[in-house]
Amino acid sequence: MADPNHVGAEVRAKIAAVWPEILDAVAECRLTLEQAAAQIAGVGIRSVQRYARSTPGAREQLDDALTDGAELMVARIPSLILDTADARRARVLAEFAWKIAASRDPKRFGDRSRVTMEVRTLDLTRIVTAAAARLAAVQAGRVIEAEVLAPALSELL
Rounded to an integer, what is the distance from CA 57 to the centroid of its chain? Predict the structure, then answer.
């Protein structure tokens, strides 16, 4: 079976030669990763993704560039809104920019649904034992009362 991260030597050399430019274009939000792959390296996005996965340190560099781009994209939203005359278009563009930022850096810009689970244990052994003892005492008292009352009732009837 072929290695899914394999990048040919020629394609690897093309990407390696322009890797810093690709990272800068993505971090500065000038180009998407797909556009940077095509316009700067002349390869497809899959080749750039494979290069990033198979080259030591490249994946981290790409993740950092995407995160930097997310921060810059969010910082540009106010000016994007102010520079767009149509309010509906401005809203759509702002939401689009925010969604891209959230996909690049979900911890900071993603939806804020967080779940915290705290488990505490409580030993109910003593409580259950005491309740069982009380129940037994009550039941014992009823039995005694019934035994005492039963003959007295039978005499009355």
Answer: 24
